[in-house]
Automatic annotation (TrEMBL):
InterPro entries: Amidohydrolase, Bact_exopeptidase_dim_dom, Peptidase_M20, Peptidase_M20_dimer. It comes from the Bacteria. The lineage of its organism: Bacteria, Pseudomonadati, Pseudomonadota, Betaproteobacteria, Burkholderiales. Residues 204-295 form the Peptidase M20 dimerisation domain. Pfam families: M20_dimer, Peptidase_M20. This is M20 aminoacylase family protein.
Length: 402
């Protein structure tokens, strides 16, 4: 264990009480990093340029870097405090962009057609980089910080890939924290809650195979469109009659594709949709009823129904202790009156949920001024950069005070 440094301990105590303060120079640097990432967005599992820049910066600050972790584009940084041994905190940022156009008027809009940082991951990456640099320059804590720069949040596969590669085996964490911008709360506010803060996500596809024929002779066919329409109607009862009124679920059929001619009964129809739920119980119940209705429709309409479960991720569930730690850090940085708790959960989904399945922690919102995520003109609110970095750094100083 390293020798205690009374002066450093005094700095750490000051950070605990007052919150970390991000310098104007670092705030400007964070803005430059963020806008550079925005101009050069990369899709999930393709974040090669972003990851290389992240690794380069971390190394320049003396942080130990594990690049290409687990065969992914993920980057893991490890920073030990100078006050000796202690717990380990994980801090996570997502790096990937969306497959959509950037139609914003800002000078740093995407240079890649059909790829845009329309969700704020450029800002999350810059925030964690800012926290990393501040902590590297002022490592006045006892323990270790694991900086998790994660690929592929948008397809909900990156966090699981890191976990499967052994993230918490190779870098054991006592707690893990993540954040996201959110314009549902005001600028300068932090939103957090115990329990579900984001929903589970399940994507499904249903293939219905019947018998095609002439539209004028439907009795000689077996129409999959009629069967599919009946199924869509029946699915409306899944949430209203199977999920507790005290729980929350959304089931949406978003695609219904069939037929090639105006006077031909199709022999094949495809339905696609999504299920969003705030509890594992509701998630399991809705999926069970979805499958059962497909089986019943197959029997009732004489068509073959094939249910395909394309993707599943759990709800993002915060633990009570880490939520209190977020509130304490946010209060030190922004003031206790800027905390929204409980914040209304969103029915959007996040694969940070996979990290919380393996490690206690909390996910919180930073209120931003501007458009909603996934809008083609979305641009991250740069005022959030020093706020987010300060909250991350303050979490470290408070939790690893020694």
């Amino acid at each position: 264990m390293a020798a205690r440094d009374p002066a450093a301990e005094g700095l750490a105590a000051s950070a605990v009480s007052a919150g970390a303060r991000i310098s104007e120079e670092l705030a400007r640097a964070m803005q430059a990093w963020r806008r550079d990432f925005h101009r050069h967005p990369e899709l999930g599992h393709q974040e090669h340029r972003t990851a290389a820049r992240v690794a380069e910066l971390l190394r320049s600050w003396g942080i130990v870097v594990h690049e290409g972790y687990g065969g992914t584009t993920g980057v893991i940084g490890v920073l030990d405090g100078r006050l000796g041994a202690g717990p380990t905190l994980g801090l996570r940022a997502d790096m990937d962009a969306l497959p959509m156009p950037d139609t914003g008027a800002h000078d740093h809009r995407s240079i890649h057609d059909g790829v845009a940082h329309a969700c704020g991951h450029d800002g999350h990456t810059a925030i964690l980089l800012g926290a990393a640099r501040h902590l590297a320059e002022h490592p006045d804590f006892a323990g270790r910080v694991v900086l998790i720069f994660q690929p592929a949040e948008e397809p909900l596969t990156g966090a699981q890939a890191l976990v499967d590669a052994g993230l918490f085996r190779d870098f054991p964490c006592d707690e893990v924290y993540g954040l996201h911008n959110n314009n549902c709360i005001g600028p300068g506010q932090v939103g957090v809650r115990t329990g579900a803060i984001l929903s589970a996500c399940d994507l499904f596809e249903i293939h219905i195979r019947g018998v095609g024929g002439h539209a004028a002779m439907p009795h000689q066919a077996n129409d999959p469109i009629v069967a599919g329409a009946a199924l869509v109607q029946s699915l409306q009862s899944v949430v209203s009659r199977n999920v507790s009124p005290f729980d929350t679920a959304v089931l949406s059929v978003c695609q219904f594709q069939a037929g090639s001619a105006i006077n031909v009964i199709a022999d094949h129809a495809v339905l696609r949709g999504t299920v969003r739920t705030l509890s594992r119980e509701a998630q399991a119940r809705v999926l069970e009823r979805l499958r059962a209705l497909c089986d019943g429709m197959a029997s009732g309409y004489g068509c073959a129904f094939e249910f395909r479960h394309l993707l599943s991720s759990p709800p993002t569930l915060n633990q009570a202790g880490p939520v209190e730690h977020v509130k304490r850090a946010a209060a030190a940085v922004l003031g206790a009156d800027r905390i929204v708790d409980p914040v209304t959960p969103l029915m959007a989904s996040e694969d940070f949920a996979y990290l919380l399945d393996h490690c206690p922690g909390a996910y919180f919102f930073l209120g931003h001024d501007g458009l909603t995520c996934h809008h083609p003109e979305f641009d991250f609110d740069d005022a959030l950069l020093p706020q987010g970095a300060a909250i991350f750094a303050t979490l470290v100083y408070q939790r690893l005070a020694g």
